[in-house]
Amino acid sequence: MASSELCQILNNANANLYPSDPQPNLLNMMLRVPQLSELTFNNNNNINTTGPWHQVNPQSWSRQNVLEWIGYHVEDSRVDASLLNMAYCNMDGPMLCGMSRDDLMALFGAVFGDKLHHSLENLRARYASDLQENAVLSESEFDLLDNLLFPFMSVPGLGPLLETVVVQPTDRSEVEYSYLSEYRNQLTPESDHGYDSLSESLQSSHNGSLMNPSSPECSGSDSDPEYSVPKDSVKPEPVQAKKRGRGRPPKQAKGFDHIIESKKSKHAPRGTHLWEFIRDILIHPEQHQGLMKWEDRRDGVFKFLKSEAVAQLWGQKKKNSSMTYEKLSRAMRYYYKRDILERVDGRRLVYKFGKNSTGWRIEATGY
DNA sequence: ATCGAGTTTCCTGATT
DNA sequence: CAATCAGGAAACTCGA
């Protein structure tokens, strides 16, 4: 997709959203249609950029920083990004900091808006008490961010957009289409109500608050474990038992090859290793209630509460409907050799993070 | 084209 | 008995 087309989409989306009726005060300031020049950034020449958002005081954030920050929380909260309107994201740090909790909740919905507000307050407090505005993050913090930021690209809608808007390398058209086609391929006849594509979702008209809790669209996304485990969407009887996914081919063809197009994304996204997936479930318990729990938070000992559900989630993430705890646990056991996990003897479903795993420690997660 | 990493799948046997 | 653990072997994808 050419950048001009993207700009067109954004402009159309905003024109649809805000035809003529002027909005009051602060909101009004934000409803200006973003111009391409404001939304594109050169890789080597970060106009509008002051640095990574997590290293800069929110008061000094550029528009790009704000976009990245929102994108981070979209992924973190498993929000269906196709419902986000980019116009709401079109603000810089000072403007963002001028918004009240109510403003954010009005724009982003009660739950997500509140989360954004909470995050913003934390960041502001941190920088208020820390004069080193551009302090370098610890290794573990960087590691965590590195792992958490990359999954943007797997957020329906926002992923491709952020790739274009935020990263803007020389040619992303293939990547964008790869992502979009992947999302489409994930849709099944039963579940085909969440989103169609970035452009369609952006061009559709959402009135009022952009997050509508009652909307069925709010309850599912690719990385949205509890809400969209495709219990009944597994397609039986593949037309043809062709090679699929990683690993030794199953004896009996399973899965939904005919749904997933053979041409997959060339990228193996970072931050998608099994242990990272497990870690992220553990450090975001509010989003994965009852799946896993810490046995000893300090020492990194954790337990599977719903082993098969976690396996299903992992399978969902890897687009492998035949994943089981049996197989997942085999992969877990391979981590012992690499000191990513340590053995916990005599306790079923209990594992412990090893010295080569990162990002789970309290000081790194804040949880 | 090749290789290594990181799984995925299957399997057998042991343990809880 | 079912679920889980252990770990070997082979197959596979992806990125380098």
From TrEMBL:
A Pfam family it matches: Ets
Keyword DNA-binding: yes
Comp. bias intervals (Basic residues): 241-251
Organism superkingdom: Eukaryota
Residues in PNT domain copies: 40-127
Sequence ranges of Polar residues compositional bias: 198-222
Keyword DNA-binding (UniProt): yes
GO molecular function, one term: sequence-specific double-stranded DNA binding
Main location per the UniProt record: nucleus
Record keywords: DNA-binding, Nucleus, Transcription, Transcription regulation
GO BP, sorted A to Z: cell differentiation
InterPro entries: Ets_dom (IPR000418), ETS_fam (IPR046328), Pointed_dom (IPR003118), SAM/pointed_sf (IPR013761), WH-like_DNA-bd_sf (IPR036388), WH_DNA-bd_sf (IPR036390)
Domain ETS: 272-354
Location(s) in or outside the cell: Nucleus
Alphabetized SMART domains for the sequence: ETS, SAM_PNT
Entry's Gene Ontology cellular component terms: nucleus
Disordered, as annotated region: 189-260
UniProt family annotation: Belongs to the ETS family.
PANTHER family cross-referenced by the UniProt entry: ETS, ETS-RELATED TRANSCRIPTION FACTOR ELF-3
Name of this chain's protein: ETS-related transcription factor Elf-3
Organism, as annotated: Triplophysa rosa
